[in-house]
Amino acid sequence: MGYVADATKAERPKKGETEGKDQFCRNCQLYTKGEAIDGQEAGKCLMLPAGAVHGAGWCKSWVKKA
Length: 66
Prior knowledge:
Radius of gyration: 11 Å
Shape: globular
Distance between the termini: 21 Å
Number of strands: 3
Structural class: mainly beta
Number of helices: 0
Strand order of the largest sheet: 1-2-3
Largest sheet: 3 strands, antiparallel
C-alpha cells in the first residue's frame, strides 16, 4: 500500500482529476477522522483497520472523497 505518515515524502501520481500534491488521508474516501496523535489530525482507514493513520498521510489506495 505504500502508506507514509507525511504525504509530502511520497511520490503521489495524479488520480483522475486530482493532482498528487492534493492527495492526503484526510481527503480520502477510506478515511474517518478520529482522535489526534501527537497533536496532529489522525483517524481510521478501511485499508489499515488495525491502527490509526495521520490525516496528513497518504497511500497508494487513495480515493477522492465524494
